[in-house]
Amino acid sequence: MMLDPSPGKHLFGVVGYPLQQSLSPLIHNWGFSAHQLPCTYLAWSIEPQYLPHFSVALRTLPISGVSVTIPHKKHIMPYLDRLTHTSVRIGAVNTLYWQEGEIWGENTDITGFVAPLLSRAKNIFSALVLGAGGAAQTCLEGFRRMEIGDIWVSSRNKSKAQAFAVGHGIRYVPWNRLEEMSADLLVNATPMGMKGQSETTLPFTPEPHRFPLVYDLVYNPVQTKLLREAEEAGCSTINGLSMFITQATEQFRIWTGEDLPHEDLASMLQEHLTSN
Ligand code: NAP
């Protein structure tokens, strides 16, 4: 086990705000139980103004590992001892772990994002990303690794999207001109279509001659309106559950050295999401 030694049960958790719909406790406690590890994983809903207090708790409580989610992925970085090369490139962490008495920040979202694209990489030369936040930044790092050079971004906030495009050396397309776009891959990196959050979706339905592959990072519901419409139109699709499972599996491996079986986990989560 790669945990810092602490007596009794090892404590893990996810820090974010708000946290009502986090599936992380379900996944990691399922994994700890499957591997019979003496660990427990909690949900820590910490408002942004209390993040400095949480960072003190990180060092004073026997916490062995943490998942970090919105809105803390960037803001927690200054409180850590070390950052991996990947997390620095993306500018955000989603995983904290101890190594030789120091707290490290890592980003496993990138592995999760790229995983379902690898088998299709030879057909992807261009991509359009919707959204200009943290997940969009992860997409760009993924495209860099896959050597996809023709990248466009669009977001409802024009000035933010333009700044994002300039900052990353990619091209910008206005939100109200999306229907003129085409690319090998369309990625939704906004919360559009997410359960209980935003019923809004794209102002057009993707079609295979414009977007042969549509990837929605939203994983609750597993089949979003965007994916349903894209599938009905004949596009290939990828849902966000695969990314979510892979990033969690990678965290679990960093903390425990053990694997989580992807298919069993996917079935368990699909069942959970359908019944809730
Ligand atoms: P973020 O940093 O808050 O950025 C969200 C982006 O979406 C911003 O550009 C925002 O624009 C835009 N947006 C928000 N609501 C919108 C709406 N109703 N219509 C159109 N655009 C909207 O969030 P993030 O970390 O990038 O995450 C984005 C989404 O990715 C999450 O909601 C989550 O579903 C998904 N995600 C999935 C995984 C996974 O493992 N599958 C991992 C990370 C993220 P404004 O600046 O105008 O608000």
What this model shows, in words?
- This protein is an alpha/beta fold and 276 residues long.
- It folds into two domains: 11-107, 3-Layer(aba) Sandwich (Rossmann fold), CATH 3.40.50.10860; 111-241, Rossmann fold, CATH 3.40.50.
- It has helices at 24-34, 51-60, 85-90, 109-114, 134-146, 158-168, 225-233, 241-256, 262-275, and strands at residues 10-16, 39-45, 63-68, 82-83, 95-99, 102-106, 126-130, 150-154, 171-172, 185-188, 213-216, 236-238.
- The strands form two sheets. A six-stranded mixed β-sheet has the order 2-1-3-5-6-4, sandwiched between helices. Strands 9-8-7-10-11-12 form a six-stranded parallel β-sheet, with helices on both faces.
- Helix 6 links the parallel strand 8 and strand 9.
- NADP nicotinamide-adenine-dinucleotide phosphate binds at residues 70, 109, 112, 131-136, 155-157, 160, 189-192, 194, 198, 200, 217-219, 240, 243-244, 247.
Characteristic key phrases:
alpha/beta; Rossmann fold; 6-stranded mixed β-sheet; 9 helices; binds NADP nicotinamide-adenine-dinucleotide phosphate
Question: How do the helices and strands follow one another from N- to C-terminus?
Answer: EHEHEEHEEHEHEHEEEHEHH
The CATH class of the largest domain turns out to be Alpha Beta
Number of domains: 2
Which compounds are bound in this model? NADP nicotinamide-adenine-dinucleotide phosphate
CATH topology of the largest domain: Rossmann fold
Structural class: alpha/beta
The proportion of residues forming helix, as a percent range, comes to 25-40%
Instruction: Give the overall pLDDT as a whole number.
Output: 92
Largest sheet: 6 strands, mixed
**Poorly predicted sequence stretches spanning 5 or more consecutive residues:** none
The CATH architecture classification of the largest domain is 3-Layer(aba) Sandwich
* Number of helical segments with 4 or more residues: 9
Cα radius of gyration in angstroms: 19 Å
Which strand order do you get reading across the main beta sheet? 2-1-3-5-6-4
Shape: globular
| Strand count | 12
- SS strand fraction: 15-25%
CATH superfamily of the largest domain: NAD(P)-binding Rossmann-like Domain
Beginning-to-end CA distance, first to last residue: 33 Å
